[in-house]
Amino acid sequence: MSPGIVIREAHFPGRAPIDAYGNGGFRFADMSHRGSLLCLPSGIHGWEPSDPDALTRDDFRLVFEQAEEIEILLVGMGRELRLLPKPLREMFKAARISTDPMSTGSAVRTYNVLLAEDRAVAAALIAVD
C-alpha cells in the first residue's frame, strides 16, 4: 500500500538570494515558497512563527543552533518596522548575533547585498501580501 502524500518541512539546502517577495511568499533559486522564511547557513527553511507580532526564542530555534556561523540576523518584520522584544534581543546579544529588524522588503534587499559580499548573514523574513 502506498504511503500517500508525504509532507516534509520546506528546506532548500543552500544559500541563495531572494529574487522576489510579496503575495504571501518568496521566490529564490528558481522556486517559490508560500509563507515566511529563515535564510541560514544550512539553507533556506520554511518558517512559521507562532505569532509574528510577538516573536519568541522558540521561533528562532534554528538560528540559535547555527549561532557560531551567524554574525548578522536581518529580521523582516512584515510591512512595518517593529522592534524585537527586549528578552529576545538580549538572547541574541549573548549568542553574539547582531540583530537588525526592518521591513521585509528592506531585509530582502540587505540580505542579498550581504550574501553577495559573502558575509556571515542570516535572515528571518515574515511574508507580506
TrEMBL record:
SUPFAM superfamilies noted in UniProt: MTH938-like (SSF64076)
InterPro entries: MTH938-like_sf, NDUFAF3/AAMDC
Residue ranges of coiled coil: none
Protein name stated in the entry: Mth938-like domain-containing protein
Taxonomic classification: Bacteria, Pseudomonadati, Pseudomonadota, Alphaproteobacteria, Hyphomicrobiales
